[in-house]
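Budget justification, computational time. The allocation requested in the original proposal was used primarily to generate structure tokens for proteins on the priority list. As evidence of use, we reproduce two of the resulting records. The first is shown immediately below.
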Amino acid sequence: MGRESRRIIVVDDNEGVGQTLSLMLGRMSVEPIWIPTPERLPEVMREESPICVFLDMNFRAGIMSGNEGLYWLKWFRKNHAETPVVLMTAYGDVDLAVRGIKEGATDFIVKPIDRDRLTGVIEGLPKWRKKNLRTERNDGFYYGECHGMETVRDMVERVAPTTASILVTGDNGTGKSALARQIHGMSKRRDGRFVHVDMGAIADSLFESELFGYAKGAFTGAVAGKAGLIEEADGGTLFLDEIANLTPRLQSKLLCVLQERSLTRLGETKPRKVDIRLVSATSSDLERMVMEGLFRRDLLYRINTIHIDIPPLCRRGNDVIALARQFLDKYCAQYRDGSPLDMSADAKSDILAYKWPGNVRELEHVMEKAVILTDGNIVDASVLGLKNRETVVEESAASTMADMERDMIARRIEEHGGNMTLVAKSLGISRQTLYNKMKRHGL
């Protein structure tokens, strides 16, 4: 296992170069895998988890453009973003090497290869991983390479510098809060405060005073005036997480703040000017809530100047492997003093097959547990336990659906005063089916 975690793939069509480099790497306690043609890379990468790949720039005789190397570099960035790639060129073409670095290469090395230079590259790999973790996660948010996330990245880069209100939607655990924080960091208000308000964590009775503030004596216990969270975001960004939890009354007050750019504290009559940039997030369907009369349409228009929808992790393809790699590096630094871990082929297969109902948050939890429980240098599928986890999730989902059905039937019975004919009709089922369901649910 220890040897597997120190494998490096060397891709060069020159057998002499391949053997020489392999010999040099072997003396550095690294196990080299030499392949003469890059066309074998997809096959090899399905079986290996190398700590690095050394990639030649040119493979066909007479062609010195480096386009072949850049093509495969792009392939790596798309399919194995967690793997550092060092480019090799025999001609010391600095411009070509710089282009490769800009397109995602970790480093470059000139042939004939100098031993000290090679040692420096190998020793620099841990630093690259830490830097890559910081860059790719973008202050806590990882984009990846799938089409859906590329769309999100493009939208963020375009709208973050503006003052437009942004609504971020997506399932629980997709990273809406992290994306909101990044939008603030990329905006012209980055020096101002980022005020995160979790609307689901504030008691209904405290909503108004927490958001809008209050004057001294506004209510029992208000011994001094206090600015609300909206005021605290003055000059910065106000992030309303799970905005769907706003009561109708507070929806109206928030709408006034956005329209007038001012607010009035509880117990005061004079409005105060506020300069905020609003970013909101929700996992709820606000359009449906508008149709059901639970959310104001005019407020939805105000908060939804720009809409960014984050796709669930199960729709991000191979990005889930790269993200798992990021979390491995993060928790290896925390629990193993930076000693790296790799994933077995079976572990990667299970990660790709799992549906990730908890999205990025669940993946991070699973990878943290894997780092803690792994004794060797390879995270195995058995440590992840995703197949057993999937069974538990499915059983839990089934239990939740049963509870929802029971609650709905009980509510309809109460609404219709026990008239089973009306209850069955409202549910769109026969009376006999209704009785069967009631018996099953113990009603």
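The second record produced under the same allocation is shown here.
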Amino acid sequence: MSVFLAVVIVTVLGLAGAIVLVVASHFMQVQTDERIELIQEVLPSVNCGACGFAGCADYAGAVVESGAAVNLCIPGGASTAEAVAEIMGVNAGEVGKQKAIVACQGTFAHRDRQYTYDGIETCAASATLHGGSSTCPYGCLGYGDCVVACKFDAIEVEDGVARVDMTKCTGCGACATACPKRVIWIREESEKPVVMCANHQRGAITRKACTAGCISCMKCEKVCPSGAIKVRDNVARIDLDKCTGCRACVNECPVRAITVPKAV
């Protein structure tokens, strides 16, 4: 009899506890705005972080709860921005297409190795050993950390240098973040030229390190009709707002360090 009574008491207590939990969950539950889930559904779900948030879920929450801009998803582009804007009932605004550019042309034909590197085959590891084995201290290391980081199969290492397939690149910036040499830049998609060099050493030193590097001769600066290109810190840089795309600098550069990036 005592055993039966004990079972009854335990059962009653269990039921009472369950009822308390159900009631508590009903009154204490946090209401989730359904727009967050709707926005997550239209985002590309690549969690690249280009929007400035940890991932697509965080970005969706920020749009609804904190008023984050609806056009921050770079991989999604204009179509995603419009879809998010429709959910939020706002204007999407302009979304410029971004592309990654590897500002280096230092292939095996253009530069040598200071030593034979026999360690972990990553750019990050190689860079810790005297800045890498390349004779150019500013160039692409070529071990493919950017390739691993890219979720869109848009970048590959060819002849010792990373190259971007513009037809696949979404401009998310993951490759740029992964590059220890910071030679991968994210810029607005255009057919305007870019100086494919990041070496800030004097021209004569750069020339010894890489035959494709900018030698800061200033010929491009002198020939530019719009004043869009200037040599600063021993390397030429182009102001895209001033550049008209005439390509006079491309034709004038004696080392062919200025070019218009194209799909590989």
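A brief technical remark on that second record: Residues 2-28 form the longest helix (27 residues).
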